[in-house]
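Support reply, case 0932

Customer input (verbatim):
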Amino acid sequence: MNAVDMLKERRSVRKFTDQPVAEETLKEIIEMAAFAPSWKNTQTTRYIAVYDQAIKDKIANECIMGFEGNKRTIDGAPVLIVETTVDKRSGYERDGSFSTSKENHWQSFDAGIACQTFCLAAHEVGLATVIMGIFDEAKVIEAVGVPEGQSVSALIALGYADEEPKMPPRKTVEDLLTIK
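Our regenerated output:
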């Protein structure tokens, strides 16, 4: 699939079939996602794949701040990806000082690039995703056992689509672009 088609066709999917996602397929996605650019090539994004139903249930019931949409999505997804970021590397110098006035903003920026790269890689191999941001980070860290020194950046439901969402309206180039 060419890049333009991939960008136009990828959708956020919230309903999945019960077909399992093979670990080899997940590894293929991660291998592609590893090409996401990052601050000074720090490559700080990590992925925790939650296949265990009990852990997914705990996240769905205790960690998503009562948001029923995320609960339904997590309940129906064969795999839940917890995207984490190694703290205090993106946007930092080796001595621990910030490199720019954006301070630690680069950590989220890098995580966003990596998250979208993961979702596009999943789309390339026939899987669907949705990125979820409504969650209690401390509770997710506890439920999954996120390693010390890492922050949770996003939750990504992963599986085979059981729906084909239509493309939402897009802003025009004129709305998005200013030329000076």
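We compared this against your earlier run and they match. Two observations from our side: The longest helix spans residues 105-124. The chain has one domain: 3-176. Please reopen the case if you see a mismatch on your end.
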